[in-house]
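Record format v2
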Amino acid sequence: MSGIARRLRDVLPLLPFLTLVTVFLIIPTVTVIVSAFFADGAFSLEKIATLFSGTALAALWKSVLLSASTAILGALFGAVLAWLIVSSPPTSGVRRAVISLCSVLAQFGGVALAFAFLATIGLNGVLTVWVQQHFGWNLAGSGWLYSLTGLIVVYTYFQIPLMVIVFVPALEGLREQWREAALSLGASRWQYFREVAAPLLTPAFLGSALLLFANAFAAYATAAALVSQGSPIVPLLIRAALTSEVVLGQSGFAYALALEMIIIVAVVMTAYNVLVRRTARWLR
Amino acid sequence: MRRTSLGGKLFRGLLWVMFGLFFLIPLYSMADFSTRNLIAGGRTLQAWKNLVQDNALYQAIVISLLLAVFTVVLMLVILVPTMIWVRLRTPWAKGIVEFLCLLPLTIPALVIVVGLRNVYLWVTYFLGESALTLTFVYVVLVLPFAYRALDAAMSAIDLKTLSEAARSLGAGWLTTIGRVVVPNIWSGILSAAFISIAVVLGEFTIASLSGYQTLQVQIVLIGKADGPTSVAASLATLLFGFVLLLALALVTRGRRRTTASHVLLASAVAVPAVPANQPGLPA
């Protein structure tokens, strides 16, 4: 009896935290999952079926395309930048500065990023005007910035720094001795890279790319600020379903789309975790 | 030492320049664009003056700043005692608390806002219709960042010995937390606060879809008519973020190498599965 009372007393101070998380994180998530499977109080696959409509599939395809292409671009360029950073002298201020800058820019998704690109290559953008004056080309032509291509360019801007942040530790984990050992055993630099560095870095690289994918897939603010009409990608389709639900009774659609997003992000993140554990074996 | 040929050096230099241009041109463009006089040509600071002169924008800035303050306070009041308690009295719950704290990283804000409608019916029923009710959701959003910062600071001190000493000298729990533990994890608290402020000021998803006029929502709204003002406000938020993170770097410097600000941020973006005693990166 006193054991239970004691246990209860021990848990009591955790209640504010647990309540907050339950009400504002768990309940919303469970609401989404449950609501996606219920219509009018009964179990139904009706809402799930809407995910296979033309609109939803088209949005999903574009979202995957956007996330995958920015993950690949971000991972490749980010890895190169990470390599530049790691191979510069460790004491240099440049290195610290670039890493700090990256940590800000990786967080710099959102609305500000959309406006940064509008100010650069929008219709009256600084770069647009400059190129127009000097070369006579129209950079902003046909409004591509508001299309999928534009989103890819803009997303890459925060994907590269994120890659740098998650990939630099893996690069730093490559010990200098391994390189020296390989070279002194007669390997060429290319051989060292192919036989030693690349296999060691592959899980970290793929893992980071997956993280980037999930990051892009779940991003909303930048796209919402940039694309005010139409809903080419899943997050914007959710916006459309949420804001027009009164008219079309589409809140069910929003639940289904949100469930789709949970599942995709969860799958990608699980794969990421598996790869991270493989990396953790030799890192540090 | 690595030997580098001239070609290699040139190649590296070229890469640095390309990355530099890609990242700095948009930032420069924001500064240029926001001071441009679109009508008469030349320069004007009108867009920047609008930050305080435009009433709607000014109101939104005030609301966002208030939200940032409330979020930080509520986050600290809830999270600090919880984390201390878990470490001292209920170690079996540490895994659960950590999991819950890092969960918002894998559940997109967009999903939360979709499922939040019913919850908010109750919240507005009890607390009234105010943008400041967003505080609760924002505390959840900043949990992963704050948790990592506080966890790093708490791992660096011997919490058990400190609190046992305080308790055996007759201090109650409140005194122990307020006068013994908190001063020792001060840098972690500051980091958690700074990161939370940065997150709240930049938050758009939940505020816009719940229909509240926070800074970011207002920036988008204004952007449809007055580009330069929106760009100025965006750049201001960004610069503020830079300053916060710079301050964060100063605060965390000299503590352990692994808790430098960028690692903290990075570990906050990265995911749950890492053991709590490694504030560094899982990747």
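Chain B has two domains: 1-34, 47-269.
Residues 256-283 of chain B have pLDDT under 50 and may be disordered.
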